[in-house]
Amino acid sequence: MAAGPEGAQARHVRVWDPLVRLFHWSLALSFAVAWFSAKTWSDLHVWAGYAAGSLIGVRLLWGVFGTRYARFSQFVRSPLSVLAYLKAIAQGGEARHIGHNPAGGAMVVALLVAIGATAVSGWALTTDAFWGDLAMQRLHDGIAHLLLLMVCAHLAGVALASFRHGENLVGAMLSGDKRAPSADDVA
Ligand code: HEM
Ligand code: HEM
Q1: Which tens digit of pLDDT belongs to each residue from 138-184?
Q2: Which residue's CA is the nearest one to ligand 2's atom 35?
Q3: What is the whole-number distance in angstroms between the Cα of residue 100 and the centre of ligand 2?
Q4: Among 3, 110, 150, 181, which is least packed, fewest CB within 10 Å?
Q5: Paired strand residues for 12
Q6: SS3 labels along the chain
Q7: pLDDT reading at 7 higher than 60
Q8: Is the pLDDT of residue 58 over 50?
Q9: What integer is the mean pLDDT of 113-123?
Q10: For residue 4, what pLDDT band results from cuts at 50, 70 and 90?
Q11: Is the pLDDT assigned to residue 82 strictly greater than 60?
Q12: Which ligand neighbours the alpha carbon of 100 most closely?
């Protein structure tokens, strides 16, 4: 490929817009703060939890009205496509996706739902109806722990895809750019 500014431009494509990147790192931070303050600092916990919940609200709107790779219609696939993709990973032949791959897309949806459910159950604990309610406390605590497992799976998925396709996905979530697609990639 030609050197120079035009060639350099063609080697990378913009994938994650600024809102997606700001959303992602703010969500990771508010989740971490909510988690670590859960037993020790309830005011901070509640605010970090509301921040995470509000971020989900913004992301849901952006998933409908946002830029190409931010849209749910671009990356949410049927359960059968997700299974087929997981099978392809096991066989070592999965395609590189410029946006979220089908398994990553399913995890994004699961994370958004679980964070939303954690924030809503946390809010419920502050209402008269569920104040001190043991079942609601267990539900809130349970989803939060499930979420922690899902975040671990998310990080493992990011590491695996980065390794398999020889690219730094964390860097892409910071800069917004990825290597331009080749003929075999799904763009
Ligand atoms: C240091 C920790 C983290 C790193 C390095 C990381 C990295 C990434 C990367 C690289 C992507 C893009 C994946 C792709 O290319 O398909 C991504 C997406 C995402 N991550 Fe994380 N992540 C971290 C923590 C978290 C946490 C704690 C959460 C939620 C509690 C989270 C939720 C998400 C969501 C919802 C997306 C989809 C972004 C979107 O389309 O808006 N991440 N993450
Ligand atoms: C991402 C968001 C959130 C996460 C990860 C999270 C996580 C947790 C965890 C793990 C606990 C259990 C602490 C323990 O074992 O004692 C907890 C407790 C609690 N959380 Fe959250 N939380 C979130 C959001 C919220 C929100 C939005 C609120 C309120 C508006 C809230 C209110 C509470 C309350 C009142 C408790 C104490 C319940 C009890 O007495 O056991 N949380 N949270």
Answers
A1: 999 999 999 999 999 999 999 999 999 999 999 999 999 999 999 99
A2: 125
A3: 30
A4: 3
A5: 179
A6: CCCHHHHHHHHEEECCCHHHHHHHHHHHHHHHHHHHHCCCCHHHHHHHHHHHHHHHHHHHHHHHHCCHHHCHHHHCCCHHHHHHHHHHHHCCCCCCECCCCHHHHHHHHHHHHHHHHHHHHHHHCCCCCCCCCHHHHHHHHHHHHHHHHHHHHHHHHHHHHHHHCCCCHHHHHHHCEEECCCCCCEC
A7: no
A8: yes
A9: 98
A10: very low
A11: yes
A12: 1
Structural contact between residues 131 and 123, judged by C-beta atoms closer than 8 angstroms: no
Map tokens 């539900």 to a residue.
139
Ligand 2 first shell, C-beta below 6 A: 31, 34-35, 38-39, 45-46, 49-50, 52-53, 115, 118-119, 122-123, 125-126, 137, 140-141, 144, 147
Q: Which two tokens stand for residue 97?
A: 């996706």
- When the pLDDT of each residue in the chain is averaged and rounded to a whole number, the result is 94
